[in-house]
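Problem 12. The chain below contains 349 residues. Write out its predicted structure in token notation.
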Amino acid sequence: MGQQQTGDNVFATGNSLNAEEVAVYRWFALHRHLDLPRVAAETGLGEATVHQALESLLRIGLVQPDKEDPDRVWAVDPHLVAAVATAPLERTIAEQQNRLRVFRDQFARLASDYEEGKQGASAELETIPGLSQVRAALNRASEQCREDMITVQPGGTRSPEVLQDALARDSELLARGVRMRTLYHHTARFNGPSQAYVATASALGAEYRTAHQLFGRMIIFDRKAAFLPDHHGTLGAVVVREPSVVHFLCELFEQVWSQAKPFSDAANDGLEAVAKDLDRTILQLLATGLKDETVARRLGMSLRTTRKHIADIMQKLGADSRFQAGVAVAIGGLLDDDTDLSTPPTPQV
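Solution.
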């Protein structure tokens, strides 16, 4: 007969006893006789199964042999077995809970130091290192916002998932009476998900405008806290609270906002008019000596799309090189607002 063992063997058996072990335990709890044929007959189990179940119960400690009478087996109170078996685990849990309590206490003290530091000059500039922390900070700022939120969102494409999350957050802001204004690149007007998002949010009171050139991503809450990208190659952010800097950023937004156009489906505005406006903007940027990569970033387009537009412009101008294109632009005054780029300039003799 196997030896009685408790403790870890209880957990080694699995989450629970099987039906055969339960039946054999019940039989010994009532009869206490070590009579395997009788156990098998009265439980309807085979003797081999009964023997295997008995060995398991002995290992667990739910039964133990009578030291004075080898023909008797005693069922042990399951509560006692559980108390013995779970004691090491309970000690481990208690130790882990104590470590967790110490950990939380230490970080609570650090948090108080952090909050104290924020009351000083460092509170005017805060670096948030990772994307998840940035999202959490934006959610907190959004929940605390009461009057005004202005946003600059460069780029022409945003995923439906991102826009869906933004719509839920923006709906709560608008329901609280917060004025919400957002600047997009003109290219966003060609993006289906962006069109749907803007239509829904506009119906709730949000305002959207687009421009060919934007100065970078930015979100400002209540004209007090400005979230800017961290340009150290991470997905973090920098939060600026210094009043003069935040005021300057708000004024910069207002300047672009006043010159931007209300967001609308590009098809409704006339694709030809939109394309002409875009071509003129590209020419203006190239005339300042900017590289293609910088132009693409300013316009919220991919480099490939930007170069395709440049190639189309050169073809319209009948130019084989950018130098020839520059000459054609200068001769034709093509940077004037009322000049039609689709008509190549007539060379002056």
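Discussion. The beta strands are 63-65, 73-75, 125-128, 148-153, 179-185, 207-211, 218-221, 225-229, 237-240, 261-262. Students who got a different answer should revisit the alignment rule from Section 12.3.
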